From TrEMBL:
Database matches in InterPro entries: Ribosom_uL1_bac-type (IPR005878), Ribosomal_uL1 (IPR002143), Ribosomal_uL1-like (IPR023674), Ribosomal_uL1/biogenesis (IPR028364), Ribosomal_uL1_3-a/b-sand (IPR016095), Ribosomal_uL1_CS (IPR023673)
GO MF: rRNA binding; structural constituent of ribosome; tRNA binding
HAMAP family in UniProt: Ribosomal_uL1_B (MF_01318_B)
Keyword 4Fe-4S appears in the UniProt entry: no
Name of the protein in its database record: Large ribosomal subunit protein uL1
Functional note: Protein L1 is also a translational repressor protein, it controls the translation of the L11 operon by binding to its mRNA. Binds directly to 23S rRNA. The L1 stalk is quite mobile in the ribosome, and is involved in E site tRNA release.
Entry GO CC: cytosolic large ribosomal subunit
GO biological process, one term: regulation of translation
């Protein structure tokens, strides 16, 4: 058996069943931090089966303290809207040319936004963007005439949450270099949004388990009392 590193040993000694407050969890993650600025991640187990349309949980939320990562944004727009998107900080703006670029496999984006008049072009990318969760969607505000605001929101800390097939939502809520209160504000914004997004078909207990971890750190169970409405 391979010898455990000092860090692995201290992680192994943590109580797996202990329920932490958000403050306590952040403190433990800091005590086990790596040599780079790790992302703090949340996993929320929900009492839903997303295979049923009335149990799907999906939405957008702006994290008040930002995400700490550079978000790459592509925008489908023409004319004045294209100029506004570029001015707002979009990484790539185009129309048919951008569609061809994406069909050729250039998909290194975190968010794709489109004006409504461009959906005829974007629609042809369903098989390319759909599996990556990048397809612009009016319900998520990524199909909008106000591309300027959409780009600013994406760059400024807005994240999409979407339940996976096992009923879990994973999301980053910032970096370990963030102040405690900033990580807590992001935790609250995200969990509040998920509680508010409870679908009509959800029966029984909705928020079943919440855990916090960092890129290289331990997974810590968070007391559900920390999540309003849970």
């Amino acid at each position: 058996m391979a010898k455990q590193t000092k860090k692995q040993k201290t992680v192994a000694e943590l109580d797996n069943e202990k329920l932490y407050t958000v403050d306590e969890a952040i403190k433990v993650l800091r005590e086990h931090k790596a040599k780079f600025d790790e992302t703090v991640e949340i996993a929320i187990n929900l009492g839903v089966d997303p295979r049923h349309a009335d149990q799907m949980v999906r939405g957008m939320v702006s994290l008040p303290s930002g995400t700490g990562k550079d978000v790459k944004v592509a925008v489908f727009a023409k004319g004045d809207n294209a100029d506004k998107a570029l001015a707002a900080g979009a990484d790539k703006v185009g129309a048919e040319d951008l569609m061809e670029d994406m069909q050729n496999g250039n998909l290194d984006y975190d968010r794709v936004i489109a004006t409504p008049d461009m959906m005829g072009v974007v629609g042809r990318l369903g098989k390319v963007l759909g599996p990556k969760g990048l397809m612009p969607n009016p319900k998520l505000g990524t199909v909008t005439p106000n591309v300027e605001q959409a780009v600013k929101d994406a760059k400024g800390g807005q994240v999409e949450f979407r339940v996976e097939k096992m009923g879990i939502i994973h999301s980053g809520i910032g970096k370990l270099s963030f102040k405690d209160e900033d990580l807590k504000a992001n935790f609250k914004a995200l969990t509040d949004a998920i509680v508010k997004a409870k679908p009509s078909g959800a029966k029984g207990k909705y928020v079943k388990k919440v855990s916090l971890t960092s890129t290289m750190g331990p997974g810590l169970k968070v007391d559900l009392a920390e999540v309003e409405g849970a």
